[in-house]
Specification:
The protein is an all-alpha fold and 167 residues long. Helices cover 62% and strands 0% of the residues.
């Protein structure tokens, strides 16, 4: 992550351009925010949440492999924990493993039933991947879905001034 810090405000045009044109910049779900995952009442949920927080910290410190491994443990403990799939998808994206990133983001959207904060972030991240891969229609569709769920970055792109000709 080459010294980049996550000090951007999602409401700024610069942040939007930064996320789109700097795919190495992390766009995580903050691990300390509540999730809408279906298994929050499972006995392993407390341990899984603690591991997820550690995984995000590892990734923010540049240890993508450690973060992926930690999130894989979270998923093993709580396989219906949507935010773990979302965050692991982000790390796969940063590792340039698009197929694995898309699998995890699709799973996060599925587990969250396409609703809530996790889904909005997964749609946004998937839209970024589609954009990077040149699939502008898919990118626009996912940004729209994220915007409809209230994701600030996606709302800014979809409802105000698009930065891409097809969005």
């Amino acid at each position: 992550m080459s010294g980049q810090t996550a000090e951007w405000s999602p409401s700024t045009d610069e942040h939007i351009l930064h996320v789109i044109f700097n795919p190495d910049f992390p766009y995580f779900q903050p691990a300390d925010q509540p999730t809408e995952s279906a298994d929050l009442d499972e006995p392993d949920a407390i341990q899984a949440k603690a591991l997820e927080v550690e995984a995000v910290k590892l990734a923010e410190n540049g240890d993508l492999s450690g973060g992926i491994a930690q999130l894989s443990q979270v998923i093993q403990l709580s396989p219906r924990w949507a935010s773990a799939y979302n965050n692991r998808g982000q790390l796969h994206r940063l590792n340039n493993d698009t197929p694995a990133a898309l699998r995890d983001l699709n799973k996060a959207i599925e587990l969250s039933n396409g609703k809530g904060r996790v889904a909005s972030l997964a749609y946004t991240q998937r839209a970024i991947l589609h954009h990077i891969e040149g699939r502008e229609e898919d990118s626009g569709n996912d940004f729209t879905a994220a915007a409809n769920l209230g994701e600030p970055l996606a709302k800014k792109l979809v409802f105000t001034k698009p930065v891409c000709g097809t969005l």
